[in-house]
Amino acid sequence: MAKRIMVQGTMSGAGKSLLVTALCRIFRQDGYRVAPFKSQNMALNSYITPDGLEMGRAQVAQAEAAGRDCDVRMNPILLKPSSDTGSQLIVNGCVRGQYSAADYFKMKKSLIPDILAAYESLAAEDDILVIEGAGSPAEINLRADDIVNMGLAELVDAPVLLAGDIDRGGVFAQLYGTVALLQPEERRRVIGTVINKFRGDVALLEPGLRQLEALTGLPVLGVVPWLPVDIDEEDSLAPSLSETEAKRALDAAVIRLPHISNFTDFPPLEEHPDLGLRYVDRPALLGQPDLLILPGTKSTIDDLLWLRQSGLEAAILALAAKGTPILGVCGGYQMLGESLSDPGGVERQGDYRGLGLLPCRTVFTGDKTRTRRKARVEAAPFAGMPIEGYEIHMGQTERLGGMPFCRFADGTEAISTAFSTAGH
């Protein structure tokens, strides 16, 4: 069986994903066969594997660092929040159902066999598994039913590195407080601490490092510098360009929907020197952009109603009337159509008016489509261009007029620019 090491953090965003990615690359460069593993991921950013299964994008990046194809066994449990109190549960890449937070916590220990089967299968093939925790192991209200931090470390007998984020401030309190709240048997699993995202002269940290070691009884095993690494965020939309920084030759505004998903589609645009990208959540901030983007969403109908209630729908329609280009991605594309219908209550039962900017209509269904596709663009100005991507949705969109954007290799139409017809 593979050797294993686990990276836990003092909070979400402490840099666990990047540290796991780095360790995967280091072990691979040292000649080991290595794989990442995260038992439970909560993220609206997901990826479709070559065999048509769904997993978190962080483990996809980690697999790439390990020099291998992504595999759903690396992330057997994925939760995709659909509201403040509920999520879609995906087990081994397939939808298991929709659960409220309370119902999920009652049943999540029943998922341990799925977690261990995935872990043991990878461990039988690899030399090293690098395991990522979630949030913080000091969330003492969740300790009894934990399957992703110390609970998992105990199940697979893994030593733990504890990482703190100095860029947010209070890193010594983060690390000391986390260790202090662990149970004695949990504390014994921690082999050392890591201070992440440090800017400056490490010599200035030395007195604090020695005191922290004395207080926790654990060595500080490393101070990792802050790095301008472009890696997908998974838990939330990280702050992007400010309005002043966005004043470049072209101004693109992305609507910050309440349930925005796969927002990692957009950071590559930020790298263009002439394009300013900003996120907008109220009409007063919209202004007169050169391009407006409606992104994907996990709750298309709820976010459409939010657009309507917030006044953003009227502002978007006013921009469209002036000729401003509007791009809809995934659920945002659906909103641009004439209607959205949900007869079975997949999201919110009923029939809803869309923004009416595109000749199409969408009907939600309970079956989830997960597949990879190749196509060729038919619409100007990109006619003839080959494209490749993945399709993930729970519903079908029908074109009512105009021409298809592209055509799949099997001859069928692809009517949206992102292949997917729903942000699910």
Key phrases:
424 residues; alpha/beta; Rossmann fold; 6-stranded parallel sheet; 12 helices; disordered C terminus
Helix content: 10-25%
Instruction: Give average pLDDT, whole number.
Output: 89
Count of separate DSSP helical elements = 12
Which spans have pLDDT < 50 for at least 5 consecutive residues? 236-246, 416-424
Strand composition percent = 25-35%
Strand order of the largest sheet: 2-9-1-10-11-12
Computed CA radius of gyration, to the nearest angstrom: 23 Å
Q: According to CATH, what is the topology of the largest domain? A: Rossmann fold
CATH architectural type of the largest domain:
3-Layer(aba) Sandwich
Reported for the largest beta sheet, the result is: 6 strands, parallel
Structural class by SSE content: alpha/beta
User: Could you name the CATH homologous superfamily of the largest domain?
Assistant: P-loop containing nucleotide triphosphate hydrolases
The 3D shape can be described as globular
Q: What's the total number of strands?
A: 24
CATH class of the largest domain: Alpha Beta
**Total of domains:** 2
> How far from one another are the termini?
36 Å
